[in-house]
Fold each of these.
Amino acid sequence: MDFGILLKKIKEYDTIAIFGHIRPDGDCYGSLNGLKNIIMTTFPTKRVFCLTSHVESLTFLGKMDDVTDDEIFTNALGIVCDTSTRERIADKRYKLCKELIKVDHHIVIDNYGNYNFVDENIPATSLLICRFFFTYPEELKMTSIGANALYTGTITDTSNFRYRGVNLETFTYAGKLVELGADVEYIDHNLSCESLRTTKLKTFVYRTLKVTKNGVAYAKLTKTIINHYNVTYDEAASLVTLLSNIKECPVWILFIGYPKEVRVRIRSNGPDINMLAEAYGGGGHQKAAGASLKSWFKVRNFVKDSDELVRCYKQNIPYKIGKKEV
Ligand code: AMP
């Protein structure tokens, strides 16, 4: 991957807007804040903004910028990180930018940038930012703030180095980030701490989790339940991990009732699930995907199709969703 044009464009522009996806996660916050730190440390006179929604639990990496003047974008370079399609870019003002660059690690569906830096095999966009950074060791600079951000993005998207995409490059960059000041204990503390209300909601998830005939574990957190436990939607959504690692269940799903949709978080340690998510208008990776359903009525079908996917997987036969064979 030749990062020459990325560095050239960063040098060319005085104003750079870095965009992330809707419902940002650790890798989104990590890659945005990491890249911002690299640019601002190396080129202190440039104006750099990070733009996606605010997530309280990730603000230890840096806050998103509040840009009210749209004029700023007209002469800006836009860099979109960790976002597979243009529909998922949280701040639509990316359209106003003079040029757009995509930096991502999701399966390519939409090359919306004027320049696209995509590696589908790297386990985190934060690692792609590291690859860019370490390509120019003499030129680019980063402080411990950037190192914390990129290290966080790396461990959140690899679930602490637990996925197969993790390789020598991952550990090399992780080590280099620690050398640059990433504080692993500080990061772990911030990622692991949860509210007492969330702890209480966990017992609800364990009490109500269901398992389908072929082994899909799932739980539903409706708006009423979320309000009752007085947790944020993000706190509720984070509980998908509770359903993981059940021996009989290679696929697990958490359905979360957001104000205007039901968010689906689906995970697998068996069959690929991205095609299933795509069939419902969503997307993602082979083992971690998601979708937004219009109503709870659709949940039933989603569970049914997931169960069929697991049946086919266990019997080693192809799975068809719609006209597609998976
Ligand atoms: P999440 O469960 O939100 O962590 O999402 C897991 C993966 O699925 C991420 O890579 C997301 O980008 C992707 N994803 C989640 N929801 C959607 C959606 N509605 N449309 C497309 N991709 C999604």
Note: Residues 297-314 form the longest helix (18 residues).
Amino acid sequence: STIELQDLVQLGKIGSGNSGTVLKTLHVPDSRIIAKKSIPVENKPLIKNQLIRELTIMQNVKTHENIVGFFGAFYTASTTNEIVILMEYMDCGSLDKIMSTYKSFVKRGSPDASENWFNELVLAKISFAVLNGLSYLYRDYKIIHRDIKPSNVLINSKGYVKICDFGVSKKLINSIADTFVGTSTYMSPERIQGSVYSTKGDVWSLGLMIVELVTGEFPLGGHSDTPEGILDLLQRIVNEPPPRLRQSPQHSREMVDFVNRCCVKDEQERSSLQELLCHDFVEKGRSQGDREFRHWCKRIKKRLKEDKMLQREENERAKLVK
Ligand code: ADP
Ligand code: MG
């Protein structure tokens, strides 16, 4: 069942990143919600053709429980030059969104934020899902993700964790927009230094992401969006010791060991996807706490809604004051 653009009605904006904008849409013929991502592209045949070729690779990826469903890609040549990607809508959003919602609950002093929402069961579920998705993409399609970060890990209220935005090469993305601006970078040291990129680069990114979810901060320190600030961060990734987690009453030995195997600067010494899939922490994420996790996802969805409402009220009030 292919979806046609003309059958989609826009319901609202979900978010926008470096490369484009994501809208929440309704597919009218079967009343299904679909996420529609638009990426403006330069009107150069070479870039367009390559992009379309890469998108057809995505089209061939068969459904997997840890990969966001793909419903098609279009190139709209009419008034605007853009690539449109249709994908499964994930109703609990991305990890960065959940993280910022948690922070706004903390700021409001909500009792709901008395402890970090990203407890170890949740982190184990996320770790397993990301590794399992990555290993599927590589095993069956030789696709390396290359852009694992909180905004590319999505959750839905049925209790699924899925990765999205893989496969499109960075060279092309760079031709679309400056990828560094506005994001913390999850790139591995070897990638920054221009070595061959393997799936272990994604392992590094996953490690950083888990540390960020545990501590609430991007582990390698912030950076300003100036070229100097970005260069400074890249230099820190290459030259400074990697982030570590220390064992404590809050952090189990298994989780600390898992993270510290991901955050290894030397690619050779870093664990592989397959090794990590056998790790105790990840095994826990695979086999335990399904009911509890589903419950967690439902709760997250409620909290996202609540946060959105409160934010709207705040905006209204601010307008009245003016
Ligand atoms: P980035 O990943 O760099 O933030 P994107 O354009 O890929 O930029 O996505 C923008 C935002 O839209 C993401 O941060 C995420 O919160 C949200 N998003 C993307 N895809 C989906 C989806 N399929 N379902 C729900 N939310 C999504
Ligand atoms: Mg994204």
Note: The radius of gyration is 20 Å.
Amino acid sequence: FDHERVKVFFVLGGPGAGKGTQCANLVKDFGFCHLSAGDLLRAEQNREGSEFGDLIRKYIREGQIVPMEITIKLLENAMRRELTQPHDREGWEDGRGRFLIDGFPRKMDQALKFDEDVCLSTEVLFFTTTEDEMLKRLLERAKTSGREDDNEESIRKRFRVYKEQTMPVIEHYSKEGKVATIDATATIEQVHEKAKEIVTKILA
Ligand code: UP5
Ligand code: MG
């Protein structure tokens, strides 16, 4: 996809930082299409006839990164589907579109491959808070989420993978001047205001 027409915002931050929550708000403000890599993988895991179901389940429970070919294919297919259907949302005329790609890329190889083969990204929205806060949020969410990785053991593994594999991605984009860091410790509404301000400037 042509990055002049298709705006890709990567949304990164640790497990439970609030990526999904904030994406839902930004969709309402700016007409984004929100694609969560984790949600796409969970849907593929449960899709009847998927050859990857067992593999995805195993990786997610261990907090490991699913081989990038699978995730990138799911994202690319979802983007193509969106871009080829009619929209009356802001920013979506004549093959144009804007995406929030949530929870991706979380490993350097994915970042390079996506920028090269799918679409050059515009910006990284980086939501940051402490591990204690993220753990608290995830354990609370665990009561109702039904997610197989919302247990303390999987959460600890997700934290480790995030530090070892995803932080280098953020450093990489920082060097390119593409990272907007947002303190996600405040209330959902306060974090939203800050994110909205940043996105407004970038889209202007
Ligand atoms: N909450 C949110 N904001 C709050 C605030 N400001 N104050 C108080 N509470 C707040 O939020 C989490 C919880 O916190 C919610 O209950 C919310 O109400 C509350 P949420 O918005 O869901 O946080 P989010 O950052 O989206 O957390 P999530 O658990 O989804 O993050 P992960 O990055 O861990 O999960 P994801 O779904 O992206 O990935 C899951 C797994 O998929 C990965 O571990 C990996 O195994 C696999 N994966 C890949 O292999 N490749 C990929 O490219 C992507 C994923
Ligand atoms: Mg999420």
Note: The chain has a mean pLDDT of 97.
